[in-house]
Write a structure and sequence with these properties.
Elements (H helix, E strand, L loop, with lengths): L1 H13 L13 H6 L11 E10 L2 E6 L2 E3 L11 E3 L2 E3 L8
Antiparallel strand pairs: 1-2, 1-4, 2-3, 4-5
Length: 94
């Protein structure tokens, strides 16, 4: 029984499944390729990735970059596309 477990463990270690998650946040190419414009005037996009709370205060991540201020009208996980707030699960308009 033990040799079977060892063989299954070795097989499981060598199998690589694509889970579709990609990088944890965004890749450098995605961060550099997004145009950030003023959402009030329309156009562009703004994504509120989340926030990190620690002893030294709160750091908010907007479009993959650390910032101290919270984007107006956005909760973590939401993004603003062409002036409209979208949830993480909603597709961008085509």
């Amino acid at each position: 029984m033990k040799p079977l477990r060892i063989v299954l463990l070795l097989l499981a270690m060598t199998a690589h499944a694509d889970d579709g998650w990609g990088t944890l946040f965004t890749s450098p190419a995605e961060r550099g390729g997004e145009a950030r414009r003023d959402p009030v005037t329309g156009g562009g996009s703004e994504r509120f990735d989340g926030e990190l709370r620690g002893r030294h205060g709160v750091t908010r991540w907007v479009d993959g970059q650390p910032q101290r201020l919270t984007p107006d009208g956005l909760k973590p996980g939401q993004r603003r596309v062409d002036g409209k707030v979208r949830e993480a699960y909603e597709a961008d308009p085509s």
